[in-house]
Amino acid sequence: MSVLLSIIALFATLVDAFSEWLGRLVSWLTLGMVAVTFLVVVLRYGFDLGWIAMQESVVYMHSLVFLLGAAYTLKHDAHVRVDILYQRLGPKPRALIDFLGAWVLLMPVCGFIAWSAWDYVNDAWAVHETSREAGGLQAVYLLKSVILIFAVTMMLQGISQSLRALLVMAGYDKALNE
């Protein structure tokens, strides 16, 4: 039984580490968004210059921050939720709520997002979709692909959290700290 617990704890730790790494990596895009937005404004109003691609890059960075940072946010329990009763409960009831939330809400929603985005992304790849604007960014199909990555990373983080919740409910939460 301890080997299985170790494998579960290792999987959860690896997924958590990946979500942490990805979240910290994309957080730097917020600095890029500020810098590029500042540059767009200075160029437009100071020099009467502008590039559609530069403006679109802010939208791309913004999308990446939200889509790729969502699993990091879930890992840190920072998504919007109603905590009226949750905060007053003990570790095992909280773990049950986390487990049920992952499998009743998170997994079906992420599965639906992946399923419904599949054709959307596939169609974009089929034509190597580009910006509708002249001079815009040429990789719209890559940006749309991030929707699928979002669904996968959220599902992985949900699995990690539900495994951790199972260990807590079973009284094996010490395996998480090893």
Question: Per DSSP, what share of the residues sits in E-state strands of 2 or more residues?
Answer: under 5%
- End-to-end Cα distance, whole Å, is 15 Å
The tally of beta strands, per DSSP, is 0
Regions with pLDDT < 50 over 5+ consecutive residues?
Answer: none
From N to C, what is the helix and strand string? HHHH
Helix content: over 70%
The total of helices stands at 4
Q: What is the overall shape? A: elongated
Radius of gyration, taken over Cα atoms and rounded to an integer in Å: 20 Å
> How many domains make up the coordinates?
1
Strand count, sense and closure of the main sheet? none
Structure, explained:
This protein has one domain. It has 178 residues and is mostly helical. The protein has helices at residues 2-47, 52-75, 91-126, 140-169. Helix 1 packs antiparallel against helix 2 (52-75) and helix 3 packs antiparallel against helix 4 (140-169). The mean pLDDT is 90.
Task: Please outline the helices and strands.
Elements: H1 2-47, H2 52-75, H3 91-126, H4 140-169
Helix pairs in contact: 1-2, 1-4, 2-4, 3-4
Give a brief description.
76% of the residues lie in helices and 0% in strands. It is mainly alpha-helical and 178 residues long.
What attributes does this structure have?
76% helix, single chain, mainly alpha, 178 residues, elongated, 0% strand
